[in-house]
Amino acid sequence: MIGELVHTMTEDHLRLHGFYSASTESVRTVIRSGNCDAAVLLHGLGGNFYSSRLLSHFSQTLRQFGISTLIGNTRGHDMINTSTWGGRARSNGAAFESVADCTYDVQGWVDFLVDKGHSSILLFGHSLGAIKSIFAQAYKPSPRVKAIIGLSATRLSYAKLIDSPRGELFRQTIARCQSLIDDKQGDQLIEVPFPFPTWMTPHGYLAKYGPDEAYNWIRFIDRVDVPTLLLFGQRELDENPAFVGLRDELVELPIQNPSVRVKEILNADHFYASQMSIVDVELEQWLTGY
To answer: What secondary structure letter does DSSP report for 271?
Structure first.
């Protein structure tokens, strides 16, 4: 990829890094006035701007459509990182983050693109990055954001995860986190086994996966008023505990919110391995017609 390493400063004074690539293509899609000229691409849980094959691929795809791209870190990049916050080094990452703070991160990158001369922004997120794209536009909408594309937005639903095939392990993990919080140890790092083995604070775990369901995007997508494309892999809808039973709810979304379109990609897993070219076609069709 040809581009430049860049950074932005969020409203709460956190320095974030990313990779900006200006499109050298003329806009070859027939798009109506007001469509997007730049995109912010957001990684999933514990990801970052430089290691995602998926985001690199779709950055190239979007640039071929005449859309410049910014693959940006959020404060939840990597599981643990050290970032400059208010001029001081501080531990951050997925183990510590509050997902609600993604509104600062998204706005920081939107502001960066506006400073680059762009005016109509697409938010493009994968997994937790898709949730952050929806959450940010639902609760702190930017007038510069004109559309959202979300790939595999996991459903962070306590009720559904409890009833999933791995529900007992999830229940035990929740109970352990609550016990540590009760003992005033909610900010210590612990190893959690669900949804995959990683490190997280009990406070952070309960915020993401607990009974409040604060980040269950099904509950707040009706607040989003820009055209939104949601893609899911057939295999993850069939097999992944975070998606089991979601298919039936997805059918209702376009009825409840006409700005939302949902598409299932046959034979695709959570990372769309070997199916990215199929997604490319879906993206072009949607970008030319929404």
So the answer is: T
- The span from the first CA to the last CA of the chain, in angstroms, equals 28
What lies within 8 Å, CB to CB, of 33 at 6+ separation is none
Number of helices (H) and strands (E) in the chain: give both, helices first.
9, 12
**How far apart are alpha carbons 148 and 229 in whole angstroms?**
6
CA geometry: angle at 229 spanning 225 and 232, to 5°?
135
Give dist(CA 150, CA 148) in Å, integer: 6
| Residue 199 token pair | 């490190």
- Helix, strand, coil percentages for the chain (3-state, nearest 5): 35, 20, 40
Indicate the SS3 state at residue 244.
Answer: coil
Q: What is the CA radius of gyration of the chain?
A: 18
Nearest-angstrom CA–CA distance, 271 and 43:
12
| pLDDT above 80 (res 235) | yes
Place of tokens 């003992």: 183
Percent of the chain with pLDDT over 90: 86
Question: Whole-angstrom Cα distance, residue 107 to residue 168?
Answer: 38
What tokens appear for 190 in the block?
């612990």
Distance CA 1, CA 209 (A): 36
Q: What is the pLDDT of residues 137-179, one digit of tens each?
A: 999 999 999 999 999 999 999 999 999 889 999 999 999 999 9
Q: Which residues contact 258 (CB under 8 A, 6 or more apart)?
A: none
Q: Is a pLDDT exceeding 90 seen at residue 241?
A: no
Encode pLDDT of 7-51 as tens digits.
999 999 999 999 999 997 655 544 443 489 999 999 999 999 999
The answer to whether 116 and 38 are in contact (CB under 8 A) is yes
- The closest of 157, 126, 110 to 229, measured between CA atoms, is 126
